[in-house]
Amino acid sequence: MKSLTAYLWFETKQQREFINITDKVENLVRRSGIADGFVLVSAMHITAGVYVNDAEAGLIADIEEWLEQLAPYKSGYRHHNTGESNGDAHLKSLLVHHQVIVPVTKGKLDLGPWQQVYYAEFDGQRRKRVILKVMGE
Amino acid sequence: MKSLTAYLWFETKQQREFINITDKVENLVRRSGIADGFVLVSAMHITAGVYVNDAEAGLIADIEEWLEQLAPYKSGYRHHNTGESNGDAHLKSLLVHHQVIVPVTKGKLDLGPWQQVYYAEFDGQRRKRVILKVMGE
Amino acid sequence: MKSLTAYLWFETKQQREFINITDKVENLVRRSGIADGFVLVSAMHITAGVYVNDAEAGLIADIEEWLEQLAPYKSGYRHHNTGESNGDAHLKSLLVHHQVIVPVTKGKLDLGPWQQVYYAEFDGQRRKRVILKVMGE
Q1: What is the DSSP letter of A136?
Q2: CB-CB: which of A51, A61, A110 is closest to B131?
Q3: Distance (Å, rounded) from C-alpha C45 to C-alpha C8?
Q4: Do residues C133 and C3 lie in contact, with contact meaning Cβ atoms separated by under 8 Å?
Q5: Contacts of A81 in chain C (CB under 8 A)
Q6: Do B58 and C40 touch (CB under 8 A)?
Q7: C55 close to C20: Cβ distance less than 8 angstroms
């Protein structure tokens, strides 16, 4: 069994951004020399998500609007009594989930034709991390 | 470490269908000879989901209605400017998530008494795939 | 490759509870002697969730209220024709997801500064289980 771990750092300019990280995940797999296994891609913060979907700008705007409807940015979250104002970002993170596993087959990400791996920042403008860990043989 | 990979193909008759694939996942684990490990079950399309829950028809109808309330089929998604009409299916896929890991113990799926693995098609009537990959020893 | 499996039992006093199980996951990893790998933490019931987020009481109350808005406890679910009254708990389980993978690096849970692993009970007052399985080397 082999494994390789890397960390991606982000500090987005906007409070919310959606960043395609598929090539970074592919790079790690290539460097690992692993032909068959799993790569975990997991946000290390509780106000960000990682998901797999389409690299299409209209859809990304739809996703952002939809998340805002289901988990709105607003005052009144109890969490804000701690001095934070990012209650919505925690809920958005739960909704899209903070991690995915990408299967690796014959040394490549075994994704469908339209599947891309996205980092979803819901409370940016600060340094945040994603862990990538590939395991296999 | 051993691993085995298989692909399930679907072409549903309805636009939306929920298909119990637990036995197919079990079959792969049996064929692999793996006694202890993880099976990844992951949709390879961005308008389908994979989840674990109850094989009860009333509940499945509840899930479908609930998804329709939270991520409605409608015109007006920006994604539709690409010529598609399946914006809702992308959001439903994000909501239920597109993958699960099933633990394998003593050569069997280590699921609770009511846990079944479902493929959730949100934009069917076309050929689509799910990857199964088991890894362990 | 090494692996170790354990089961956590819960029987909550309340119908809904959020229980921080991070230390139990850490204990298993320590006992396994695995330095590098993945731990799966997965509810074995279809009316409970497992998620990673903040150990902050206000936020937990926000999460509970938000889940109740998006997947309300109510009569009228078709699932209730089976004699159950927990349709909402199934939907809440789908929404927060029933499992996470925690990466293990240098023998420790490789979590971000605020990440804690939670068991979310949505239909308690009965015995329920979570599986922990760590795999690696």
Answers
A1: E
A2: A110
A3: 12
A4: yes
A5: 58
A6: no
A7: yes
A1, B104, C28, C135 from C5: Cα distances, Å: 19, 10, 8, 9
Alpha helices in chain B (DSSP H): 22-32, 57-70, 87-96
> Would you call C3 and B66 a contact, using CB atoms and an 8 Å cutoff?
no
Q: What does the angle CA B46 – CA C120 – CA C44 come to, to the nearest 5 degrees?
A: 75
Q: How confident is the model at residue C89 (pLDDT cuts 50, 70, 90)?
A: very high
Please report the residues numbered 22 through 61 in chain B whose beta carbons come closer than 8 angstroms to any beta carbon of chain A. 38, 40, 42-46
Give buried/exposed letters for C99-113 (b at 16+ CB in 10 A, else e).
bbbbbbbeeebbbbe
DSSP letter, residue A22: H
Spatial separation of the C-alpha atoms in residues B41 and B23, rounded to whole Å = 12
Give the confidence band of C69 by pLDDT, cuts at 50, 70, 90: very high
Residue C46's closest CA among B56, A72, B94? B56
pTM of the model: 0.98
CB B99 within 8 A of CB A101: yes
